[in-house]
Amino acid sequence: MAAVRNHCVVISRKQSTSSSPKAASACRLPFAFEPIRLHLDQTRKTSGVSRKQIEQACGCQMSGHWFDRSQWSMPSRAHYDTMNAMFGNRLKAYDELFSEYKAVKLQQRHFAVTKDVPFTNVWDFKPVQWYPGKHPCEKPLELMRHIVSASSRPGDVVLDTFVGSGSTVLACVELGRRFVGCEMGQAEYAGAVNRLSA
Ligand SMILES: C[S@@+](CC[C@H](N)C(=O)[O-])C[C@H]1O[C@@H](n2cnc3c(N)ncnc32)[C@H](O)[C@@H]1O
């Protein structure tokens, strides 16, 4: 952890200053799964198979998820095999396409929660009780564990530009994440280092 005086890191995405929908859509991030979606949809079109026919054959109403960008999802192997047979086996091998899908997934911003952890807009964690020397803004370790595990993978680097008591960086150590931390207060910095070394 490095002590940084009067510096802070700001990461922001460029916002459109125009109200035109065209300019706004130009600022949007590209759809990451587009090559896969395009492969599926173009093969479907060149094979002359309608979405309705695919849904009938697959016994579900998932065509919007496989052929449109909104809420796109990778078809299961069984559904893929069904549509590939209808396309005269023009699709790539499932394993090949699935590897491409996994590679894109790994590059995407991670967010992993289960029904057993809080992930709605309001999170309920007990605040840290006062103790001598407590940082006035110390966040509960349990809360930081939740944030770090939901939004990063083991081995990832987590940046905390306001380390304070060190709850976030401690959660990182516990959960196998690397971290970069900044803290301008010498006493706070020393407190966080002590907490990490305990
Ligand atoms: C709200 S507290 C962080 C609390 C922390 N999340 C925790 O659980 O203890 C903000 C901390 O950021 C530090 N800080 C404020 N501005 C800073 C800056 N520009 N660079 C580095 N540290 C800064 C303050 O000294 C303070 O300890």
Structure characterization notes:
With 198 residues, the protein is mainly α. The chain folds into two domains: 74 residues, 434 Repressor (Amino-terminal Domain) (Orthogonal Bundle), CATH 1.10.260; 88 residues, Rossmann fold (3-Layer(aba) Sandwich). Helix content is 44%, strand content 4%. It has a two-stranded parallel sheet. Helix 7 crosses helix 8. The N terminus is likely disordered. Keywords: Methyltransferase, Transferase. Its EC number is 2.1.1.-. InterPro entries: DNA_methylase_N4/N6, RM_Methyltransferase, SAM-dependent_MTases_sf. Belongs to the N(4)/N(6)-methyltransferase family. Pfam families: N6_N4_Mtase (PF01555).
Brief rundown of the structure:
The protein is mainly alpha-helical. The protein has helices at residues 21-27, 34-46, 51-58, 63-67, 77-86, 94-107, 141-151, 167-174, 186-197; strands at residues 157-160, 178-181.
CATH superfamily (homologous) name of the largest domain: Vaccinia Virus protein VP39
Share in helix: 40-55%
Count of strand segments: 2
CATH architecture of the largest domain: 3-Layer(aba) Sandwich
- What coarse outline follows from CA principal-axis ratios? elongated
- What is the CATH T-level topology of the largest domain? Rossmann fold
Placed side by side, the strands forming the largest sheet appear as 1-2
* Average pLDDT rating: 87
Main β-sheet description: 2 strands, parallel
Protein name: Methyltransferase
Domain DNA methylase N-4/N-6: 99-188
InterPro entries: DNA_methylase_N4/N6, RM_Methyltransferase, SAM-dependent_MTases_sf
Keywords: Methyltransferase, Transferase
